[in-house]
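Standup notes
- DV: blocked on the single-chain target, sequence here:
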Amino acid sequence: MKNYPHIFNDTGIGTWKYNVQTGDIECNENWANILGYQLSELEPMTSKKWADLFHPKFIDKSEVLLKEHFEGNSNFYQCEIRLKHRQGHWVWIMAKGRLETRTPEGQPLLMVGTNQDITEKKNTESLLKKYQDLLDISNNVVKSGTWEIDFLKKETTWSDYTKKMLDVPKDFIPETENTLNFFPEGKNRVTILNAIKTAVYKGRKIDLELKVNTHTNIKKWVRIIGVPEFKNKSCIRLYGLIQDIDESKKIQEDTAIREEQFRQTFEHASIGMALVGLTGEWLTVNESVCKILGYSKKELYKTTFREITHPDDLEKDLTLLEELLLRKRESYHMEKRYFRKDGAIVWVNLSVSLVRNDMGEAIHFVSQLQNITEKKALIETMKDQNKRLINFAYIVSHNLRSHTGNISMLLAIMASEIPYFSENEFYENLKLASENLNETVQHLNDVVIINTKLYDNLESLNVHTYIENAIATVKGLTETSDVTIHNTTNKNIEVSAIPAYLDSIILNFITNAIKYRHPNRKSMIEVFSAIEDVYVVLNFKDNGLGIDLETYGEKLFGMYNTFHNQKDSRGIGLFITKNQVEALGGKIAVESQVNQGTTFRVFLKNATH
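- DV (later): unblocked, structure below
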């Protein structure tokens, strides 16, 4: 160092000579400058001053390496240490030295060495490590690893994530042969081989989606990207990425299958299906739409639904579409009319929903059209026929009532004018037949009245009050029959009904329960209520004779059907009651067991809906 001081000064390397026995240290100017000092500021330098400049974390490490060198276990001392700069920050130093002489007793005496500032190098290494960490993180996120084939060194290398992707251990050494084995024989292996050859000999990049078999024999989709590197027109290296796309590929395949299923369903559906633009243009229609409207697809794509909608239905349709766009509803249904190409009017049951993108923006409408023209015509025909039948029944009941009244009157006159006539055995038979005929005509008239009052205005009626009134009406009958009635219906529930009908319905079920009570036990009738959907359900439960529903269930509400040997049973009450309930938009259900009792469940429209 004495002979060549200018070499060290020019390179910025600090030199030092350390007397191990005395602790004295001789340094050059560079040694001091690395730490921001002038040499004169540090002189005399001792081992103690040097130790004060050491980062505490590196003192033990340095001492261990020095000891190894002094004991002859290493040819030289080399240690990366950190020393404190004059401005307070820490400087990375590569300290190297060698023991030159020993004392006569063999103890270390003189050691010489160098200090080199490697702060920039260490910072670069730290930055590279951060970048590598970020790369590893990004590789994990995007499920990709790196690979390289070095043709000069004849080496193949894989990154850790590549090995993880292919289920091989970290110490796995890839080679040309075992690498190709990961690609299934046939199309996949041939494709990757051809791609490598093309890259090596023609300089083309690789970008393929192929199937591989992992080391654990799991099949998965990967994307292979490769870039050739040339020198003197020869490929010296091929490197790139391998990305796990198995999940996205399967989603893509599943989506393709679903899209094909939707396309097939859409195209061959028995009902009309269409995608309609936000301004009313037909975007896509199936054959059923063309059949319903009489247009070809090409003709429909040149028009809008507005142009072929009946003007009386257009405003309602547009209003509902606007509500879809404003998120006031998810979908809507309506019956509307279109003009066919031939000018005829076609009725359809239209269902419409709105499709939005991920941003919530409206894209298009989905419409379903079901041709109900024949159904509408049939309904109109049935309405007309129903009116005629009601008129016919009214005329028949009116005329029969006149004739039966005349027969009854003539029988009374004959009995009055010809006394012995009433003594004739046929008189009583004629009288009974006349009375039965009158009763039958009255029943027919009741049914006609029910059907002709279908369009009367309904009222909101308090159920509890009407039941209490019915109980009061039959009070004498309950006392003589020893029957107890419990009314636990909700006092605030109201139904939509005609007052006379509600009176008749409640009274009929209560008197039926009294009439068909069990003779061998105390008779109880419970009336309670419940809410189910849009209905108020009135339950009439008794512990009477019960009904054999397996035998008589289908005949229960038929006209003139009786199921017990009661003298005054006519089989008309339940028939009329059922007609009244259905005329109010309700229904009846029954549960019964012989000798245990019966529960009639009467469903009437809730007035609050």
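- Follow-up: The first strand starts at residue 14 and ends at 19.
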